[in-house]
């Protein structure tokens, strides 16, 4: 796999590692140090692709909040769960998964995602001003992008 991208993500070697991240998130047992940017995206994409039994629109916020508390974090106006970022990425990941080639393995889809512009930590800032995205209002509730519509 040769992925050329400017943000140099940490890629995954197999599906098992990705499924373990998703399972650890759901069970709130994943070590805090393992909850990297790549892990956020990989675990969520795994849930999107492999867990249709979970209503992510209704449950993802609670899953993440519960995990944050379980690892000693807080969900406040300045730390922890961020509604707008979560909803933004959930939609981007759904669109990415829907466009994945038929028969592509989870690890391949995740690694393509991470190597794509969506994998860049600053990806949401293509759509949001810094002020809007990092506001308390955006952390508490969904705010639509103010720079451009999401296009994946």
What does this structure look like?
The protein is mainly α and 152 residues long. The chain has one domain. 51% of the residues lie in helices and 0% in strands. The protein is built from 7 helices and no strands. Helix 1 packs across helix 2 and helix 2 (37-50) crosses helix 4 (83-98). The chain starts with 14 loop residues before the first helix and ends in a 12-residue tail after the last helix. The model is unreliable at 1-5 (pLDDT under 50).
Largest sheet: none
Query: What number of domains?
Result: 1
- Portion of residues in beta strands equals under 5%
Strand tally, please?
Answer: 0
pLDDT < 50 stretches: 1-5
The helix/strand class is mainly alpha
Order of helices and strands: HHHHHHH
The whole-number mean of residue pLDDT values reads: 94
Task: Determine the number of helices (DSSP H or I, runs of at least 4 residues).
Answer: 7
Globular, elongated, flat, extended or rod-shaped: what is the shape? globular
Instruction: Give helix % range.
Output: 40-55%
Alpha carbon gap, first and last residue: 22 Å
How large is the radius of gyration?
Answer: 15 Å
